[in-house]
Amino acid sequence: MSPIFRRNAAPAPQDRLVTLIRKPGCHLCDDAQIVIEKVCGDLGVSWEPKDITQDEELHARYWEQIPVVLVDGRQHTFWRVNEERLRKALTE
């Protein structure tokens, strides 16, 4: 069967969205952003930053875990972003 017609196939990387939940002045957040920019740039994946200090719901949910990385709205990791793990999550 052609991969185009597979059921439950993962979205193509360019159809994914990575969200970085961060706060200003956070060195771990800066480190995470560098990894996200590299991986997403390599794969053509869109990404967006969200500032935890500007969103009460994000603050309540993730304050102790930042930086937090979401892939397609689901939590992928927190604190440290592993480049290979993120790349794998976006391509499998």
Describe this structure in words.
The chain is an alpha+beta fold and 92 residues long. The protein has a single domain, classed as Glutaredoxin (3-Layer(aba) Sandwich), CATH 3.40.30. Helix content is 36%, strand content 23%. A four-stranded mixed beta sheet has the order 2-1-3-4, with helices on one face. Strand 3 and strand 4 form a beta hairpin. Helix 1 crosses helix 3. It starts with 16 loop residues before the first strand and ends with a helix. The N terminus is likely disordered.
Class, according to the CATH hierarchy? Alpha Beta
Stated plainly, the CATH topology is called Glutaredoxin
Radius of gyration using CA atoms only: 14 Å
Query: Largest sheet, if any?
Result: 4 strands, mixed
What share of residues is helical? 25-40%
Intertermini distance: 18 Å
Strand content: 15-25%
* Major sheet: arrangement of strands: 2-1-3-4
- CATH architectural grouping: 3-Layer(aba) Sandwich
Mean pLDDT: 91
> Helix segment count?
3
Helix-strand sequence: EHEHEEH
Q: Can you identify the CATH superfamily?
A: Glutaredoxin
| Approximate shape | globular
Runs in which pLDDT lies below 50 for 5 or more consecutive residues are 1-6
**What is the strand tally?**
4
What class, by secondary structure content?
Answer: alpha+beta
Return the domain count: 1
